[in-house]
Amino acid sequence: MAIGIDLIIENGTVVFNGNILKTDIAIENGKIIKIGNRNHFPAAERVINAEGKLVFPGAIDTHTHFEQPFMGEVPPETWDQGTIAAAFGGNTMHIDFVVQEHGKSLLDAIKAKVSYVDALSAIDFSFHACFTDFSDMDMIRAEVRKIIEYGIPSFKEYMTYRKEGYFVNDGELYQLLREVQKFGGIVGVHAENTFIAESLIEEFLKEGKKSAKYHPLAKPNFVEAEAIQRAISIANFAGARLYVVHLSTKEGLHLIKEAKCRGEPIFAETCPHYLTLTDDVYSRPDGINYIMSPPLRKKDDIEALWKGLSDGTISVTGTDHIAYTSEQKRRHSETFANVPNGVPGVELRLPIMYSEGVRKGRISLTRMVDICSTNAAKLFGLYPKKGAILPGSDADIVIFDPKIEKTITVETLHMGTDYTIYEGMKVTGWPVITILRGKVIVENESYLGKKGDGSFIKGRIVDEIIDTV
Ligand code: URP
Ligand code: ZN
Fold first, then answer.
1. Residue 219: CB within 6 Å of ligand 1?
2. CA of 166, nearest ligand number
3. CATH of 58-388, one of 3.40.50.150, 2.60.40.10, 3.20.20.140, 1.10.3720.10
4. Which string of DSSP letters, residue by residue, matches 320-379?
5. What average pLDDT does the chain have?
6. Residue 1 has what pLDDT?
């Protein structure tokens, strides 16, 4: 037997590409080199026995906002702290955002962020590029091409947040969709009809209706669905791909399903909170801690979204993680409209998707792997380097114990905030080992990596691959 490979994972139940297979994995120099019976592998420096455990490709969170200033607050969670929490959650990669400062180059901001994050990140990373200043369309056109060539094929635009200076109008969105499509990228939208939401907010505030329970009433399902409908029409007119981020409503889901049935390249993401929590929480004393946009919905939306994940209407999940503290939320709580939007969650996606999805029979185990990892890699041009358990793929692997029972509490989590929206939720199944490019970075509830282990991963969308999502 030849000596010398780095790692063997043996006896695990490997879930990937629609298969569930009891097999072994050989890893060398950060790559998967063989899958099969370990008797045919060379000896390894380390063998992990994954008997009784599930072995998934490392999870990819499609939607995080680490250290992002927004609505008057910067979350105190640092980049390394947030990505370590992500690693505890079984993530080996995440896609964050670079938001253009008005009047400045987005490409320059992306390059600066890549070099800043490179020294800090515990897991691999990329970004969605977000234009906010459309006053010079020629500059945007030039930047789109360069950003895609740089390795960032995905953009994200806000159809809301006018006050915050993020809003894109329909003409600007159309122009961007056309330009991005020309160079093979994809545009995501945060879909909310800002004008209707703003008018409802104004109405409520005038009537003295300022508490958290008015947040979902100011942004009812129609606010999301109308914007999705419009974005789908505009993307269709532009002949472009569209990605709807953090889908929350059954109405929006229906529109996406119809567009997909017409053969339009429309993709969607949803988040664990839209799959588990209802808008009842906004009437609780700590209701402000649940303020995010779009807001939490009703039970029938939750069930529709699970169906959408199962039938392929929704392709991926991300957490929309933003770790404000409860004090930061409280500071702006005089009216619901000023509370910084967003909730923490990067550490909890896998246990929630397994417990609420697989164990409750709403999605299959193979579908869980697709929507937590593989499809993200396919959608954003990272596959099969990422999101795969195949020879030649990066050895990004999470070993998941399907028997561990836990009650979620902020006390034992690693995110940089003082609360979790899932406090008290019982889950079965927990990620126990996270491996980033062959290196064990989480094991025995300890972080074993170091700052800067993560690298920027360039993406390039491949038509034949994205067509399989
Ligand atoms: O409520 C949310 N989603 N906060 C983060 C900012 C955004 O909308 O992306
Ligand atoms: Zn977001």
1. no
2. 1
3. 3.20.20.140
4. -B----HHHHHHTTTSGGGSPP-B--TTSHHHHIIIIIITTTSS-HHHHHIIIIIHHHHH
5. 98
6. 47
